[in-house]
Amino acid sequence: MLLAVVGVLAAFEAGAREPATAVENTTPAPAPKEEQRFIEVEPLLPLEPIEPVAPSQETPISEVEPLAPEGETAPPVQAEPAVQGDLIVLDPGHGGADQGALGGGGLPEKQLTLLLCELLRTRLEAAGLRVEATRTEDVDRSVKQRIDMANDQRGDLFLSIHASASPSERPHGVEIFYPAAPKGAATGRTRTLLGERVTNPSGESRAAAEVLVEQIRAQGPAELSGIRQVPLRIANSLAMPCVLVEVGYLTNATEESLLRTGDYRERLADALAAGIVAAMKGPAAAGGAS
Ligand SMILES: [Zn+2]
């Protein structure tokens, strides 16, 4: 857990390469380091083909069947005018020479994050949101480039996608991070749950993170490992709320094999997209519903 947090912080504070370094000595290494850094994405992995979601499909997000009807199942998400036109900036972690964490089955984090962001884009656009991505192919992007792009586009929410690694094979599950309030920011009203008023982007980040948690709990398919506030320095440079999702542990063999399957990725994207849509209909989109 701690290692994951350190990795997250490194990703945002020191540039994109640090997390790979941090996890390299903890992940199985099927090939020498130099070869790993230049693995070609497509030929390397026999990932299951992803069925493109038909754009004509009507509100696909709302059709997802809740997997965990435990009494707190979130209502189905419907596309509503409230979110029309809001801009989500998707940030697939790593890329290019920086492959991020590497699963024992050979799945590099940089490829997984890109695949998930492509699935998210389809779903979010179907719900009426606009989507930009900090990268759409296997290329390097510095943290500054990612921030500048998001700010230039005037995004309404910055969603960074990563995957975790651990020295132990045991840790698994989705972890969601949101930034601590920057110094000087009004924090008095940021301790809010979904639907409560927030007064600054940090509070909106937390609200969005909590909505994502709700949707993952309600829909699955992943186990939620945790939600936590961390001092993400990127938040001080971003002019919008931001949430970082670690979609699972590539060092957990079971979870990695799930993440290698298209069906699991699609269901994960369904839950995340529903959470994003719900978040944009919440305090951030409504300007503070109390
Ligand atoms: Zn990462």
Structural account:
This protein is of the alpha/beta class. The protein has a single domain (2-20, 79-286), classed as 3-Layer(aba) Sandwich (Aminopeptidase). It is built from 11 helices and 6 strands. The protein has a 6-stranded mixed sheet, sandwiched between helices. Strand 1, helix 5 (109-126) and strand 2 (130-133) form a beta-alpha-beta unit. It is globular. The model is unreliable at 1-81, 186-199 and 284-290 (pLDDT under 50). The site of zinc ion has 7 residues, from loops.
Blueprint of the fold:
Layout: H1 2-13, H2 18-24, H3 33-36, H4 41-44, E1 87-92, H5 109-126, E2 130-133, H6 143-153, E3 157-164, E4 174-179, H7 201-219, E5 224-230, H8 234-237, E6 242-249, H9 253-259, H10 262-280, H11 283-286
Parallel strand pairs: 1-2, 1-3, 3-6, 4-5
Antiparallel strand pairs: 4-6
Helix pairs in contact: 1-2, 5-10, 7-10
Residues 11, 19, 93-94, 100, 109, 162 line the site of zinc ion (ZN).
Largest sheet: 6 strands, mixed
User: What percentage of amino acids are in beta strands?
Assistant: 5-15%
Q: What is the number of domains? A: 1
Residue stretches low in confidence (pLDDT < 50, at least 5 long) are 1-81, 186-199, 284-290
Name the hetero compounds present: zinc ion
**Alpha-carbon distance between the termini?**
34 Å
Q: Using the alpha-carbon principal axes, give the shape.
A: globular
CATH secondary-structure class:
Alpha Beta
The counted number of beta strands is: 6
CATH architecture: 3-Layer(aba) Sandwich
Which sequence of SSEs, written as H and E, runs from N to C? Answer: HHHHEHEHEEHEHEHHH
**Radius of gyration based on Cα positions:** 18 Å
Briefly note the CATH topology name: Aminopeptidase
**CATH homologous superfamily caption:** Zn-dependent exopeptidases
Structural class: alpha/beta
Strand order of the largest sheet: 2-1-3-6-4-5
How much helix is in the residues? Answer: 25-40%
Mean pLDDT over the residues: 73
